[in-house]
Amino acid sequence: xxxEKNILCIGAGYVGGPTMAMxxxxxxxxxxxxxxxxxxxxxxxxxxxxxxxxxxxxEIVKAARGRNLFFSTEVEEGIKESEIIFVSVNTxxxxxxxxxxxxxxxxYWDKTARQIRKHSESNKIIVEKSTLPVxxxxxxxxxxxxxDNGIRFDVLSNPEFLAEGTAIKDLEDPDRxxxxxxxxxxxxxxxxxxxxxxxxxxxxxxxxxxxIWSSELSKLVANAFLAQRISSINSISALCEKADADVEEVxxxxxxxxxVGSRFxxxxxxxxxxxxxxxxLNLVYLCRYYDLKEVADYxxxxxxxxxxxxxxxxxxxxxxxxxxxxxxxxxLFGFAFKADTGDTRESPAIFVAxxxxxxxxxxxxxxxxxxxxAMKDLRDVxxxxxxxxxxYEASAGxxxxxxxxxxxxxxxxxxKKIYRSMAKPAFIFDGRNILDHEKLFKIGFxxxxxxxxxxxxx
Length: 458
Ligand code: NAD
Ligand code: UGA
Hints:
Layout: E1 5-10, H1 16-26, E2 30-35, H2 39-45, H3 57-64, E3 69-72, H4 75-81, E4 84-87, H5 107-119, E5 124-128, H6 136-145, E6 153-157, H7 167-172, E7 177-181, H8 185-198, E8 207-211, H9 212-243, H10 247-255, H11 276-289, H12 293-320, E9 329-333, H13 348-358, E10 362-366, H14 371-377, E11 385-387, H15 391-395, E12 400-403, H16 415-421, E13 427-430, H17 437-443, E14 446-449
Parallel strand pairs: 1-2, 1-4, 2-3, 4-5, 5-6, 7-8, 9-10, 9-12, 10-11, 12-13, 13-14
The chain binds nicotinamide-adenine-dinucleotide and uridine-5'-diphosphate-glucuronic acid.
Nicotinamide-adenine-dinucleotide binds next to helix 5.
């Protein structure tokens, strides 16, 4: 069967997999291939047990796989056969050399550009899907055109705004799709090709275009603004605890101002995920690079408040549980960085588990989807850690429960039964404010939410 377009995506991760599955699902007239250097990941994409958990993903993958969606390790062949290449490789924070701990590590990105140059035999449109520092498209173009082999490459920026746990919904009905291009005749022509792909299912007014540097920068700024809201409300949660105010009431009152908006104002143990911290640090690094010290310090504050919030959570536990956690069993309800995903990258639960072990507590972890990743994250931590799928079994014999992830199931448990099985006095630290605190208090628990007065029997 012949297809209208051959689309390739390099990088079969949390972005590449779902994004390409959605294009294949909405556009049966295109052939979509996703390649990765990791053979195990590709084998999982070709199995019933996909490498990532995302509601609704397995259904669309199964429907399109083998029809117009293919997962493969044949990077070279994929490059040769495609006209449009999305690049969705990882861009983590650099851990070495200049900019370590701040700048983006662009080695995977650079390697991909060189692979594309080496194996291309015809003109191509290259789409930046990964989140990148401003001016990366220029570097990409320089690498691609350095072969001087007569092949034309047009580089576009098309950052991805999906959130994990709602990726399929976000891809199907996005707030906006952003496409940045150079403003040359060729750049605009390439941009129109990408606009046409998205137009298969997204309304024209939701597809916005811009110059390429604005597009690259908008992605970093979007994540910085979102994270800033969480740090803002988390900073206020600390004040609420001192002032006997209730952070949910404050967030509601503030968020009802339509200029502020009510979403993304849930106080928590801290934000996690692979991108917020990395992208803000990337923004901070850029500002420092351009000698904008005050701007860099302003945004760095968002990360500092997040670190403070996580540490504050642990110090509260220590203080409330009579200044010692040694030998006490503490159960973490949830390990994923948010609900509806198995992803644990930068999860606040990693920090909390490690700090509890430093205090010589015994840690029991339960999570419906993230136990495998939790085991990997904590494999080098010396201490008593156990992993138990069933939350009733996990909390039995524990002195405290700390809610790390807002999984819906934790709101629906039989807490009378849990209370009976726990060591006394029994504590609950609700790092997500998802439980019915009054009800738990009546059962006998000492309850400590975020940004609200604690309910204690002492
Ligand atoms: P990921 O680590 O899940 O996936 C990246 C994949 O790229 C890996 O499977 C890796 O093996 C592969 N890869 C690396 N180098 C390669 C190469 N040379 N050839 C082929 N494959 C290669 O990362 P992710 O979470 O999908 O993120 C990818 C990018 O998208 C990042 O820049 C991230 O900031 C951005 N982003 C992520 C999200 C998210 O929710 N995770 C959302 C929006 C944007
Ligand atoms: C975030 C952005 O929301 C996406 O738009 C972006 O594409 C993505 O980063 C990315 O670039 O990787 P994601 O990290 O998947 O998506 O999930 P979010 O829903 O943003 O949650 C991030 C963290 O903030 C989670 O730990 C969540 O629990 C926490 N959070 C969120 C709060 O603590 N309070 C809130 O009110 C909202």
